[in-house]
Amino acid sequence: MSAAPVQGSIRRRLLVQLLGGAMLLAVALFIIVQSLARQLAQDSQDNILTAAASAMLDTVAMQDGALQVDLPYAAFSMLSSLGNERVFYAVHAPSGLVTGYQDLVPIAGTGTRFDTRAFRGEDMRLITATRMLALEQGPLPVTVTLAQTRDGLSRTVDQIVAMAAALGTGFFLSVAVLAGLAARTSIGPILRLTESVERRGPQDLRPVTAPVPAEMAPLVGALNTFMDRLKISLQRSEEFIADAAHRVRTPLATVRTQAEITLRRVEKEENRASVREMIRAIDESSRAAGQLLDHAMVTFRTDHLEPETIDLGALCEDTVERLRPMADLRDIDLRVTLCARPTTSGDRILVQSALRNVLDNAIKYSQPESEVDVTLRARSGMAALEVRDRGIGFPAGGPEGLTGRFVRGANVEGVVGSGLGLTIAEEVARAHGGHLSAQNNEEGPGACVTLCFPSA
Questions:
Q1: What's the pLDDT at 289?
Q2: Phi-psi sector, 380: left (phi>0), alpha (psi -120 to 50), beta
Q3: Taking the complete model, does pTM exceed 0.70, yes or no?
Q4: Confidence check: pLDDT of 263 > 80
Q5: What is the CATH number for 91?
Q6: Is residue 123 helix, strand or coil?
Q7: Does 317 share its domain with 291?
């Protein structure tokens, strides 16, 4: 049986989609947490810088005509709260630098301004705040500029980013496990349906009634409809084979009988030869039609076996009795020897058809006034049906290839036959777990064909 072409996998496709979505969510989560961490850290540093700048501006005062700045300890304490950061400051008035670092240039603009730039070879966060001092001469703008290194901020952000990466990885791994479980659960009904159908016997064409998900209901409905059509088709095929066997064999038997009567009435030898040739053609047609129908029946029933316990001894005796009239016409003595009475499990009609075809070949190819022996033995867990004749035997090349359809030996020309007897017998044996073997007799003419079936 050829397998259906495979294109992709539902489980793999579902896993790829779920894991792809999980990866995108994990990356998005990492980026969002990283951006939020940097923004929060930046806001925290800016708030501290703002508070420190405001504290420094509170200490600026005019004393003895000069601006004095009392650097507050609290301001620098706040600036060091993020870690071992270095802080630079500069206080400017319209007249110039009041105190601090000369090279720390205020940020241009008005109000409180922030900037990130390099100062003395390091990345710094800067703030510039301006306040108006009320003096007798009028308001005096004073500007405080603070610069703080970002090492502590970077370490804090790196820690948060590492946590975000660990969180994203954990999220992805968790989703991967859940995706695997979801994929297995999703295709579970399909697997259960497959196992349910596979466990059925060849003749079990009942509709599937087990509950299935809504998405599988159309598939199950189509499967049930197909099995209904198949059941009807098989019934019609069986009826056709039985009807054809009756309608073909009966007219041929009638024609042959009439030909036999005509042969007895015809006196001229040339006319008698023509009638004999007609009888021979009828025999060939009857045998070919019968064996073709037998082969069709075997092909049908091997796919739909009806096993039962078969008494092979009784089956041998019954089959021999059915074929004894044919053997008597050629003065052939049919002998049955039951060395054992094993049983087998199988289709009685098929097993009898196999034995009948082998026995029919033995009678057909035997010399008149000879014997055909049917022996039933038990050997190594198998039941062996041996049919031995004293006929022409198999050709010089042996029996190899003679079980093929319509294949006959080169030494049987002139003998009516269709080349299906051994084919039918071998197919039946194989369908029951057995085998067929054939060989010429070691002593004397003739051949031996053995059908082996497992003992029940």
A1: 65
A2: left
A3: no
A4: no
A5: 3.30.450
A6: strand
A7: no
Label each residue of 143-205 as H, E or C. Answer: EEEEEEECHHHHHHHHHHHHHHHHHHHHHHHHHHHHHHHHHHHHHHHHHHHHHHHHCCCCCCC
29 versus 84: the higher-pLDDT residue is: 29
CA 57 to chain centre: 77
In the numeric block, the tokens 């420190």 are attached to 52
As a residue count, the chain comes to: 456
**By C-alpha distance, which of 401, 388, 17, 404 is closest to 186?**
17
pLDDT of residue 375: 93
Note whether 258 and 275 are within 8 A (CB).
Answer: no
Specify the number of domains making up the chain. Answer: 3
pLDDT tens digit string along 199-234?
776 666 778 887 878 888 888 888 888 888 877 876
Choosing from 249, 269, 304, the residue where a domain stops is 304
Residue type, 241: I
pLDDT of 143 reads 92
Alpha-helical runs (H) found in 330-373? 348-365
User: Where residue 334 falls among pLDDT bands split at 50, 70, 90?
Assistant: very high
Question: Based on the domain organization, do 70 and 81 belong to the same domain?
Answer: yes
Distances (CA, A) of 52 to 103, 141, 407, 425: 20, 18, 108, 105
- State the angle between helix axes of 421-431 and 269-302 in degrees (0 to 180), rounded to the nearest 10: 10
3-state secondary structure 17-42: HHHHHHHHHHHHHHHHHHHHHHHHHH
d(CA 335, CA 370): 11
Angle of helix 10-58 relative to helix 151-198, nearest 10 degrees, comes to: 160
Taking alpha carbons only, the member of 184, 196, 177 closest to residue 12 is: 184
Task: Please compute the mean of the pLDDT values over residues 296-325 and round it to a whole number.
Answer: 81
Q: Are residues 333 and 401 in the same domain?
A: yes
Under 8 Å CB-to-CB from 286, ≥6 apart: which residues? 249, 252, 253, 256
The residues that bridge with 128 in the sheet, in sequence order, are 113, 145
346 and 438 share one domain: yes
Beta bridge partners of 135: 138
Spatial separation of the C-alpha atoms in residues 440 and 390, rounded to whole Å: 10
Structure tokens at 350: 């098929």
Find out whether 114 and 43 touch, Cβ atoms under 8 Å. Answer: no
User: Alpha-carbon distance 269 to 99, whole Å?
Assistant: 150
DSSP-based three-state secondary structure for 96: strand
122 token code pair? 């390091």
The string of pLDDT tens digits covering residues 6-21 is 667 778 888 888 888 8
Domain extent at residue 373: 306-456
Query: 388 to each of 89, 184, 330, 399, 443, how far by Cα in Å?
Result: 120, 59, 16, 14, 12
